[in-house]
Design a protein that fits this description.
By secondary structure, the chain is α+β, with helices and mostly antiparallel strands. It is built from seven helices and eight strands, in the order E-E-H-H-H-E-E-E-H-E-H-E-E-H-H. Strands 1-2-3-4-5-6-8-7 form an eight-stranded mixed beta sheet, with helices on both faces. The longest helix is centred in the middle third of the chain and has 15 residues, at 112-126.
Length: 220
């Protein structure tokens, strides 16, 4: 079942379907923001495989046609500002998805990223009919951790060596919401100051564990 990718707005922010013709703007932002984004970029455990921006966008669009994802571009005041992808969309008894995102450094810290995550989550809950949304974040990624804190995503646990990021398998903190928690919508709950404080708090034990890499046992 192909997924309809909507256009969502909040003030100067537009969350819209990404297009192949966005490739040039996307390449420019990725290049200009290389130091800002590199620590959080997904990589291949099999080594460098090259990059083709247009092919990457086509892959995201194909995933949407197969019903597994919603690939968005973020525009701020008409300028390309970043991406947000809803991935691993599941239906039936699971009815869940995962959100990943990035925004250009010049737009960071201005409320656009939490607004984009809230808009996408509300669409998935109230239009797509999903039940649970998950965000996984590296312990060192303070800006992304502030996003889930603002929106009141619940902390659910430490996932050891979970995703291959910037050249190695990295630990991630996992956060989630289910639709019963946000009947008024994530965006409205945040805007009205009703998001629960402390929901995204990471226990000290997990913060401490994340400081120490998991021992790697090799075969003799």
């Amino acid at each position: 079942m192909a997924l309809f990718v909507p256009t969502l707005t909040d003030g100067a922010l537009t969350v819209r379907p990404i297009r192949v013709r966005d490739a040039r703007a996307l390449e420019r932002e990725l290049t200009d923001n290389r130091p800002w984004l590199r620590p959080w970029e997904a990589t291949s455990p099999h080594g460098f495989t090259g990059s083709d921006t247009r092919a990457g966008i086509r892959s995201l669009l194909a995933n949407a046609r197969e019903g597994h994802g919603l690939p968005f571009a973020l525009d701020v005041g008409g300028e390309f500002a970043g991406q947000l992808n809803v991935s691993s969309v599941s239906y039936g008894s699971l009815s869940s998805a995962t959100i990943g995102y990035w925004i250009s450094e010049r737009f960071a810290g201005r409320g656009y990223t939490p607004a984009a995550v809230a808009l996408a989550t509300d669409f998935c809950f109230f239009q797509l009919g999903l039940h649970r949304m998950e965000i996984c974040i590296r312990p060192e990624n303070a800006p992304s951790l502030r996003v889930v804190e603002k929106l009141g995503f619940r902390y659910e646990g430490l996932r050891r060596r979970y995703i291959h990021i910037n050249g190695d398998w990295r630990d991630h903190f996992c956060f989630a919401l289910v639709v019963e928690e946000v009947r008024q919508g994530v965006l409205q709950r945040w805007r009205t100051g009703a998001a629960p404080e402390g929901a995204a708090r990471v226990p000290d034990a997990d913060r401490e564990a994340a400081l120490h890499p998991l021992p790697i046992i090799t075969r003799p």
